[in-house]
Design brief:
The chain is of the alpha/beta class and 372 residues long. It has nine helices and 18 strands.
Length: 372
């Protein structure tokens, strides 16, 4: 199944007419985006937008073979003229299935905002999910049978929609996630790429044609688990086992706190999970929990070990994602050791973040961009 994105912007397009903001001012050339519209196998048009005929021509496609035009959301403003060669545009009621003469099956998916999503199944079985702007699926099951091959949605406006789909297995490691309905609240250029990458998504220029189901590569990643082992703790063992099951089969796991060696070596990307457990191990090694040992060389030893890690992060040539916990925004620990851990983790987080190109904070399942 081939998908051509005739537009990838918000309903008003990007730049917005007469908008003086910095994003609209720089949305030129490949950064300019018409309102989102999808052409599936030249037979199905999802969302009719102004200039659809010209957009198709610029992409090297034709709308002459389109047999169905479906709308996903209410269109404000002046009516869009329907080209004479296209069938009338309409919406499918939630939950109903439409079968096209081309062999495609289209199922309407209920949204939590005004609009309709569409699940498109190709004659050979690949599945595409397309969602309207500002919307996420409602009434999802606890688990789906298999993930979609491609999901096209408003990642910037509704990042939680991606999270919901991942939680039920509708988005998996081999699902290609494409961001559309891009508006002037999205950063331009490389900043947009980094922000979308945090959600496992990407954006493409208007006119791009993608093959649904072609994206199969699970990245080669070394998952670095710093949690160690806790003998005699069945709950911890069950937690670790569940975590292992969730990782893609192509990932390799290293269970170690010797991070400087991994950061200094060449190899695939590293996912280090997490710095707070690494710090626990480091404080164990230098006896930092006890006041006497802390003041008798433990503090200096810990500072040295942290400095080695920060230097390794600064000098590594591998792509690295470091996971940590944020402390200090709640109740002050009741013990000196707890307060010491809180302070040292805050220092460690700040030092490592200063070496990173992108810093994200996840709160209540929402990703906040602190840098990048």
């Amino acid at each position: 199944m081939e998908l051509t994105l005739l537009g990838t912007g918000a309903p008003d397009g990007l730049p917005r007419p007469s908008c003086p903001c910095a994003v609209c001012a720089t949305a030129r050339g490949p950064w300019a985006r018409a309102a989102t519209a999808l052409l599936v196998d030249d037979a199905l048009l999802l969302d009719l937008t102004p200039g659809a005929m010209f957009a198709a021509a610029r992409a090297g496609r034709s709308l002459g073979a389109v047999r169905q035009v479906l709308l996903t959301h209410p269109h404000d403003g002046p009516a869009v003229e329907l080209p004479a060669l296209l069938p009338p545009a309409g919406r499918v009621p939630d939950g109903q299935v439409l079968t096209l003469i081309s062999g495609h099956r289209v199922r309407a998916v209920a949204m939590d905002a005004p609009g309709t999503g569409y699940e498109v199944t190709a004659p050979d079985g690949e599945r595409l999910l397309y969602l309207p702007p500002g919307a996420a699926p409602s009434g999802l099951p606890e688990r789906v049978e298999r993930p979609y091959e491609m999901v096209v949605l408003d990642v910037i406006g509704r990042p939680d929609a991606v999270a919901r789909l991942r939680a039920v297995g509708a988005v998996g490691p081999t699902t290609e996630v494409i961001a559309v309905h891009l508006d002037h609240d999205a950063p331009p250029g490389p900043a947009l790429e980094r922000r979308l990458a945090a959600a496992g998504a990407r954006a493409v220029p208007d006119g791009t044609t993608l093959v649904v189901g072609e994206y199969h590569a699970v990245p080669d990643v070394v998952y670095v688990a710093t949690g160690g082992r806790r003998d005699g703790d069945p709950e911890w063992a069950a937690r670790i086992g569940l975590h292992r099951e969730r990782r893609p089969g192509a990932w390799r796991t290293e269970e170690t706190c010797e991070l400087t060696e991994l950061l200094g070596a060449d190899g695939p990307p590293l996912l280090i999970d997490c710095l707070s457990l690494w710090l626990t191990d480091a404080m164990d090694r230098v006896g930092a929990w006890e006041d006497e040992r802390w003041h008798d060389g433990g503090e200096a030893a810990l500072r040295e070990r942290v400095a080695e890690l920060v230097a390794a992060v600064r000098g590594t040539r591998r792509p690295v994602v470091l996971v940590t916990n944020e402390v200090g925004s709640g109740v002050v620990p009741a013990t000196a050791a707890g307060r010491r851990f809180r302070d040292e983790l805050g220092r460690l987080n700040a030092a490592v973040a200063a070496e990173c190109e992108q810093v994200l904070l996840v709160v209540a399942g929402q990703v906040l961009v602190l840098r990048g």
